[in-house]
């Protein structure tokens, strides 16, 4: 089930394009035969479909997403908050949601300061720990779930994310928990720094993360407290918007 879910996350990460079988296998770290078999099951349930050129999400995925959006429409809830962050900082504000062992960017707002063209865009999916917002989410998980996420994403981190080893992630989690926010200083994109805080649901579990990214010289240590305070302020507003009236089970 986790492997099929991984394929769905990759399909969802590029909703306006189709995936070739070879590319989907490479991105997911699974053998082509395994991907083909799993896609057959997903297509049988309407969660994926085959179109000229490859594979994409199916109609049942849209129906499920539409139902979930009634509670978790984070992009529409979060966009005004991101706009405030971008306006006040002049930098890029991102909102990413936790999906399994990945962080999926669902909203982005830009300020008026220069940005790097390689900065994260809407639709990007990163393994937990492989960006500031992905690290904030990883650090907010209970220890056992954090370790499962590190183990699950290890195959994906070979290559593009090679500097982000298991040991690097554990150290990053410890530092994030100690300081109360995540920092990424050019680990993946040279010359860029990002700060992030987690957003939690009514039960205290991480559900999303808000981040601010900029060229490195704009997020030097002396400026970070003010930016983090702004991120926390907007994160609390988003939590208030998302929380149900009562967290008690029915």
Helix/strand order: HHHEEHHEEEHHHEEEH
Overall residue-averaged pLDDT value: 86
Helical amount = 40-55%
Q: Please list the strands of the largest sheet in the order they lie side by side.
A: 5-4-3-8-7-6
* Largest sheet features: 6 strands, antiparallel
Strand content: 15-25%
Structural class: alpha+beta
Count of distinct strands: 8
- In angstroms, what is the radius of gyration? 18 Å
Structural description of this entry:
The chain is α+β, with helices and mostly antiparallel strands. Helix content is 46%, strand content 20%. The protein has helices at 2-13, 21-28, 32-44, 59-72, 74-89, 132-140, 143-153, 166-179, 224-242, and strands at 48-51, 54-57, 92-99, 102-110, 125-127, 182-185, 192-200, 206-215. The strands form two sheets. It has a six-stranded antiparallel sheet. The chain has a two-stranded antiparallel sheet with strand order 1-2. A hairpin with a 2-residue loop joins β1 and β2 (54-57). The longest helix is centred in the C-terminal third of the chain and has 19 residues, at 224-242. The two termini are 28 Å apart. The model is unreliable at 245-250 (pLDDT under 50).
Quickly describe the structure.
The chain is 46% helix and 20% strand. The protein is an alpha+beta fold and 250 residues long. The chain starts with a helix and ends in an 8-residue tail after the last helix.
Secondary structure blueprint with pairings:
Layout: H1 2-13, H2 21-28, H3 32-44, E1 48-51, E2 54-57, H4 59-72, H5 74-89, E3 92-99, E4 102-110, E5 125-127, H6 132-140, H7 143-153, H8 166-179, E6 182-185, E7 192-200, E8 206-215, H9 224-242
Antiparallel strand pairs: 1-2, 3-4, 3-8, 4-5, 6-7, 7-8
């Amino acid at each position: 089930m986790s492997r099929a879910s991984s394929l769905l996350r990759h399909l969802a990460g590029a909703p306006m394009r189709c995936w070739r079988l070879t590319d989907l296998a490479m991105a997911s770290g699974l053998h082509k035969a395994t991907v083909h078999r799993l896609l057959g099951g997903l297509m049988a349930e309407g969660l994926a479909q085959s179109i000229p050129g490859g594979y994409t999400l199916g109609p049942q995925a849209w129906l499920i997403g539409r139902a979930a959006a009634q509670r978790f429409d984070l992009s529409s809830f979060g966009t005004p908050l991101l706009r405030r962050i971008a306006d006040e900082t002049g930098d890029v504000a991102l909102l990413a949601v936790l999906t399994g062992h990945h962080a999926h960017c669902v909203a982005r707002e830009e300020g008026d300061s220069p940005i790097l063209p390689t900065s994260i865009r809407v639709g990007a999916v990163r393994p937990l720990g492989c960006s500031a917002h992905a690290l904030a989410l990883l650090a907010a998980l209970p220890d056992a779930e954090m370790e499962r996420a590190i183990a699950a994403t290890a195959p994906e981190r070979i290559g593009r994310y090679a500097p982000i080893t298991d040991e690097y992630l554990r150290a990053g989690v410890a530092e994030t928990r100690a300081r109360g926010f995540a920092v990424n200083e050019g680990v993946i994109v040279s010359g860029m720094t990002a700060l992030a805080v987690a957003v939690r649901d009514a039960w205290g579990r991480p559900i999303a993360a808000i981040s601010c990214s900029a060229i490195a010289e704009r997020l030097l240590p002396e400026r970070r407290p003010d930016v983090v305070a702004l991120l926390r302020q907007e994160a609390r507003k988003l939590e208030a918007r998302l929380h149900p009236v009562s967290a008690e089970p029915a």
